[in-house]
Amino acid sequence: MSITYDQRRTFAIISHPDAGKTTLTEKLLLQGGAIHMAGAVKARGEARRARSDWMKIEQERGISVTSSVMTFTHNGLLFNLLDTPGHEDFSEDTYRTLTAVDSAIMVIDAARGIESQTRKLFEVCRLRDIPIITYINKVDRKGREAFDLLDEIQEELQLDIAPRVWPLGMGGQFHGCYDLARNEFHTSTQGRGGPFDTVVHCSGLDDPQLEERVDDGVLAQAQEEAELAEAAYPPFDPQAFREGHQTPVIFGSALRDYSITSLLDLIAEHAPPPRPSPATPRDVTPDEDKVSGFVFKIQANMDKNHRDRIAFLRICSGRFKRGMKLRQVRTGKDITVHSPIIFMAQDRGIADEAGPGDVIGIPNHGTIRVGDTFTEGEKLRFTGLPAFAPEILRRVRLTDSTRVKQMRQALQDLSEEGLIQVLKPDIGSQWVVGVIGQLQLDVVSDRAKSEYKVALEFEPTPYQMARWLSSDDERALNTFVSKHKSAIMTDRDGDPVFMASSPWELNYKIESNAAIRFSKTKEME
Ligand code: GDP
Q1: Pocket test for ligand 1, best of 13, 18, 64, 94 (most atoms within 8 A of CB)
Q2: CA 121, 126, 130, 132: dihedral to nearest 10 degrees?
Q3: Who's near 274: CB < 8 A, 6+ residues apart?
């Protein structure tokens, strides 16, 4: 049995560290029956060797390949959950993964509200108007008022709110969650704070069954809040959600299993399947016969004896089969994909195939780059895969000055691969490396050492932020660049980048140079 593209849901979870992404991921996988997620990469033939290498990095570096894509089925649909590494693994790849999903779940800690990494990841979703479901986690603990959290989401993220699941009490008063769409009360037989194990079908929040199960004060408050919410927010509008303007909000507790099914059902019913993908010279629709896709992430093996990499390809059209020949459009070269990693659900009977919305891992030796388009021969290029302005900027210092050439080669190669941004000053010769997360710097120095035999050190710079410059008025741009020579660098394509020493300085420049665009992203070339 094959699963068509419109039965697929490819999504990611965005959150700040500790909000509960890992816990929620596990609960979603359990619900979908994919208990052995670690076994998702099937070892066979040549893939066996690839697997053991990758397992080794996982152990050494804590970088997880097998959990990069987690696949499970639920109610006849196939779900692909793409991992967005957080904590110390937070990197440009985390952002770029969001260009390969069709929807996202935003997990917020009920006590903390929107935090910095949530906001950054949200902004990336907004670039492509990715539909977002909000899951407010940890309602079993004392958190902020429900309306306070909803107001924050609405105001700070400029999203319309549609409450779908409401908490009946929070913290010590937590009795369960009420699914407003289904009129179901989810609660526990083990009393307050117990894990979810019971569904009570109700006629509404005034159902007498609730009076038996919920303390008077808590019920009265929830009834009042739900009424207020109904008056304050427009009803759920599936189209506004799909266009990225409205977010359905679910209160729950991942740890205690609350609102997992409500969440899955919402994705199943309303999150979009793979949509047409923007490309030049023409867009690609998922129902086309021929295979096409783009690479959104490269993972390198840290073991210096094995310089192999895995390129993660999101399939946009066609049915990919093991052993297929695909053309790398940038180089015009055909690559036979003998031993792809195909991420599979336990019960998926189509192990050798992948369709639109799926991700495959292509082993290679550094020939594939982030942003590469693959097709069955057509000259296409998928667009909308940006480079992101680095958030950590470091000067590169070489401990052995006789190896400048090797150092430059290393940085050039790693930037082309998509691992880092390399910025060169207009004045002076010291290059700057820009990354999103600290781990990227560690990976750069490890790889420079093992692959290019150069020892790099990173030094602080006076810069806090980098923005790509562009303008419709070429003269204005040239004037700006020559006036700010010491704060201008060029990226690997030769495009100018403004280096700001503080957010204040950046704002000031933006305000006083209306003709210039200061961009946080740039379309990859
Ligand atoms: P991540 O960093 O976003 O992946 O967060 P984790 O899933 O690792 O969770 C961070 C901490 O919050 C862990 O100690 C979890 O047990 C805890 N946690 C997660 N979900 C809940 C919840 O619903 N209620 C409570 N009380 N704790 C939770």
Answers
A1: 18
A2: 60
A3: 5, 6, 8, 10, 102, 286, 316, 356, 357
Q: Which atom of ligand 1 is nearest to the CA of 137?
A: 23
Instruction: Indicate the SS3 state at residue 3.
Output: coil
At 489, give phi and psi (nearest 5°).
Answer: -130, 165
CA of 344 to the centre of ligand 1 (A): 26
CA 434 remoteness from chain centre:
19
| Ligand 1 atom 15: residue of nearest CA | 20
C-alpha 32/C-alpha 305 separation (Å) is 38
DSSP string, 6-59: GGEEEEEEEE-TTSSHHHHHHHHHHHTT-TTGGGGS---TTHHHHHHHHHHHHH
Is the ipTM above a cut-off of 0.85?
yes
Chain segment 286-327, per-residue pLDDT in tens: 999 999 999 999 887 655 556 678 899 999 999 999 899 999
Contact criterion met (CB below 8 Å) for 34 and 345? yes
Q: Which residue puts its alpha carbon closest to atom 2 of ligand 1?
A: 18
C-alpha closest to that of 437 among 75, 41, 97: 97
Q: Is 80 annotated as a binding residue?
A: no
Ligand 1 atom 9 nearest Cα: 20
- For 462-494, how does the pLDDT look when each residue is reduced to its tens digit (9 = 90+)? 999 999 999 999 999 999 999 999 999 999 889
- Cα of 109 vs its chain's centroid, Å: 18
> Which H or E run contains 385?
none
Residues with CB under 6 A from ligand 1: 15, 17-23, 137-138, 140-141, 253-256
- Is 139 annotated to bind a ligand? Reply is yes
- The string of pLDDT tens digits covering residues 72-127 is 888 889 999 998 887 777 888 899 999 999 999 999 999 999 999 999 999 999 98
Separation of alpha carbons 237 and 260, rounded Å: 21
* Residues ≥6 apart with Cβ < 8 Å to 158: none
Please choose from 23, 112, 117 the residue to mutate so as to test ligand 1's pocket, defined by most ligand atoms within 8 A of CB. Answer: 23
DSSP 3-state assignment of 297?
Answer: strand
Domains of the chain (ranges; CATH) run: 5-64+89-270 (3.40.50.300), 279-382 (3.40.50.300), 386-523 (3.30.70.3280)
The pLDDT, as a whole number, for residue 68 is: 80
Q: Classify residue 236 by its DSSP letter.
A: P
Report the nearest atom of ligand 1 relative to the CA of 87.
2
Least-confidence region, from 37-41, 210-214, 422-426: 37-41
Bridge-based pairing state of the strands 8-15 and 103-109: parallel
Quick: pLDDT tens for 42-77: 332 333 333 434 444 444 443 445 568 888 888 889
